[in-house]
Sequence to fold (1074 residues):
Amino acid sequence: MLSIIELDFGTPKSKSAQQVALTIDGREVSVPAGTSVLRAASEVGIQIPKLCATELLDAFGSCRLCLVQIEGMKGYPASCTTPVAAGMKVTTQNAKLADIRRGVMELYISDHPLDCLTCPANGHCELQDMAGAVGLREVRYGYDGRNHVYSTLKPSPSSGGGGVNFTATQTPSPSNLTLEGGGFNPLFAVKDESNPYFTFDPSKCIVCSRCVRACDEQQGTLALTIQGRGFDSKVAASQNEGFMDSECVSCGACVQACPTATLSEKSLIAQGQAEHSVTTTCAYCGVGCSFRAEMRGEDIVRMVPNKDGSANHGHSCVKGRFAIGYATHQDRILKPMIRAKISDPWREVTWQEAIAHAASEFKRIQAKYGRDSIGGITSSRCTNEETYLVQKLVRAAFGNNNVDTCARVCHSPTGYGLKQTLGESAGTQDFDSVMQADVILVIGANPTDGHPVFASQMKRRLRQGAKLIVADPRRIDIVRTPHVRADYHLKLRPGTNVALVTSLAHVIVDEGLVSEAFVRERCEPEAYAKWRAFVAEPRNSPEAMEEVTGVAAADVRAAARLYATGGNAAIYYGLGVTEHSQGSTTVMGIANLAMATGNIGREGVGVNPLRGQNNVQGSCDMGSFPHEFPGYRHVDDDAVRASFEQAWGVPLQNEPGLRIPNMFEAALDGEFKAIYIEGEDIAQSDPNTQHVTASLTSMECVVVQDLFLNETAKFAHVFLPGSSFLEKDGTFTNAERRISRVRRVMQPRNSDGTRGYADWEITQLLANAMGYPMNYAHPSEIMDEIARLTPTFHGVSFDKLDRLGSIQWPCNDAAPEGTPTMHVHEFVRGKGRFMLTEYVPTAEKVNAKYPLILTTGRILSQYNVGAQTRRTENSRWHSEDRLELHPQDAEDRGIVDGDWVGIESRAGQTVLRATVSERMQPGVVYTTFHFPFSGANVITTDNSDWATNCPEYKVTAVQITRVSQPSDWQQRYRKFSERQQELLSEAVTK
Amino acid sequence: MSLHESHDASAALVKMVNDIADYFQSEPDRELAVDGIVNHLTRFWEPRMRRKIVAYFAERKGEGLSELARAAVARLADAARSAA
Ligand code: SF4
Ligand code: SF4
Ligand code: SF4
Ligand code: FES
Fold:
């Protein structure tokens, strides 16, 4: 079912700049060339009946309901598949057309159950609407089509009558079916309830194939087919399987596209239809999909991707659309709590008491250990306004620069590397730019799992013929998906990105593929000359690097040629680039490639970091790094600092503060004693867990603000219950620098009996209690302050966001409506700067004791530390982290699929179950980190990126053995965790 | 949970400076390389960390630091002395 408030124009909007004038029902109409007659009519308010057409999909022309008459054309063409032409004269209503349409509807209805009054789509069913639109009054064929018989289970005598639907395991047969019309019907199919979020009721299907096309065109999974022909045709998932067992990834595109109740959200069936809708932004990944939260009062009925959303164009993934149950999960902690020691039970207190306690502890600790002994961490899960306030709290109220964000452990090298080379710490394009790319280089990113909606768009472009180069140690899904096959998969060894990128550059220089004119005009000549000489050295050739990377030199050469000469070439990269000891070097190497080949500064090209969490870009923009004010301006810049000092009314430090890993070190040195952590779970997400927990334990006051008692909160002294994205206003900034509104759809649930607070309000309470006044009445006022103080945000306001829907920064006088493509005429730093990229092997070496390399990643259904998605039905797809290893490595160790295996590194040990998989290369093993008990970060080490200290999650030398019990750490963890849960349930309520 | 793991603060700092210095090793102009490291330490390291590495340098004669890293920390030490 489509959104309850969107108008469906029937076919996609044409992007043509050329206008075409025609006449429809005597009205002059002018639309872009390529627009369908159906859409042209709809745009001027003339609704032609339609069933198989929807704006989200290409026209198909199967239902024959949208027929029109066009002067000079024979017969009655389908308006959805007929493009407008200059001077065309269209008639949409006359007696003949009405007759044909009624005939079509009669056929549909004769084969459709008439239980409209109890149908979940009632009132928003397109079939019902069309019956009304064509004035259907009778059905000459009767109502006893194949779908009407045997539609219910025979009522058992005790049930008091009434039908019961089949479950997936029941088989219909004459003995358990009631007769509702004809005789036994072998075509009758039961309802498929296997997917946790939606049902498939074949009896209501009109075989319009919108679902099939949605799965093909929008999602690109191709899980659905129409089987059979004519009246026998039906929709089937994969090889006639239940949805849950099929290829389906539960994106929900088919559910949204279905014009009837055949595919319906279970929440819609359970709750009934929404009465209002609020536009907001997904709080999961960096794609930042726009959604319409369809509501009944304060209850969410369903999330429907917004077709006007510029990042997602009406598409979404299983997380954003369906995995929202965590917001109302019983595990949420809704009352502020404090305790003196982490071995004490919690005590529920009022907001006032919790805040007063935290502030007095912070002040006491500063008085005793010095101003720099405390700090704060913000999260990419927070809104821009929240992040801005946390860094303001630290800089202005704490009086130091000890503020950092979880981007430290993911994309801090992006910030550093792109600033050094291009001059701005952000991706260069919008997502739509990929539709102009001829060559796509994906390096260290797994878009189908990590950024699914963007991956769907990328796959669409690849199906149109763009070439694909993948550099990844694993055969990730995009290497081979339906109708997509990577031209080159450079299956490099983990930790050798720099070697690979530098050897690609070598080929570009060596084979004369540099775009000399671009480099001459746009880049610093000295830096270029130095770089050119460096990459041209024979030691940087693919032949010389082959031994390091494990990638055949011929493939590297061919890939480099394709990238440099294949037309518009765009690079997309992720944490497989940044989370290395040379993460920043690789980012600079990527920017070098783009500059050398002139692939920057226009649509279809560029350097595109795919950000993990929803607001990674925004949290970095908002000055949450210890050395930078909002807008990436160093704290030692006197003019910038003066502007903040003046606005905030306090002197500010001109030296960088501690980064997260530095905070841990300082804590263990006894110099860092208290921390305020908003929305981040460092005890699970940061590397070398035992090091992290030791430093948390050494602090005197740990304040955690979160939805759940997360791993870090188990070490906390003050717990401030946070609010979910559904409970507050604000903005998120996605991977394409797009600022979008988050809108409150329900009140904060964290009331202490008096009132609840959004997270920004909690930070504000804390600042005030620390003696630093903050008096914002609404997040829009925070954004106004950000805009005043940050040149790249000068033009941003909530009003403008409401008007435009979203804005890509920079947004200021030079670009009042934002900037989709950066560095168009010149680089932000003026001239682009080539940087040297010496390959330095990681210190994390394999040896006889630790012969395998462990690398880590993520999976579609789960998100980050899993605190949210683990508390939803998404766990049905991924209920545990597994260790993936190559059959050879498994065989060498006597391991078979499903065995428990111990993983030991220099940092620690853990135990997981094994998945034996050809996707891996020998010598490399892989896991995800969505479950705390997995202890994936117990084994990752302290190694980090040289420039930013971003941890080297992607390379850990390990040994794998078959085992029979959990590791010591896991056993200790379980005990500690159980004790902490007890302390929570023993919480003394006020 | 291991609550009392042994902790060697300077080892972490030494490793960090060495990592930074490694990046600059391909810079052909040695002065520029040392400048690059010093600049990096100044712009990204919290002052206590810089003071610690300088103190370590004085006490342990830069033990464990690579040649470039040593030159950079020596420069920091000079700057600290002249500022004092
Ligand atoms: S399931 Fe819905 S969208 Fe798919 S063919 Fe049937 S009616 Fe059309
Ligand atoms: S939910 Fe998505 S993947 Fe599954 S069948 Fe529907 S469109 Fe395809
Ligand atoms: S998780 Fe990412 S891709 Fe999925 S709906 Fe949310 S923003 Fe979109
Ligand atoms: S809407 Fe045009 S043929 Fe179905």
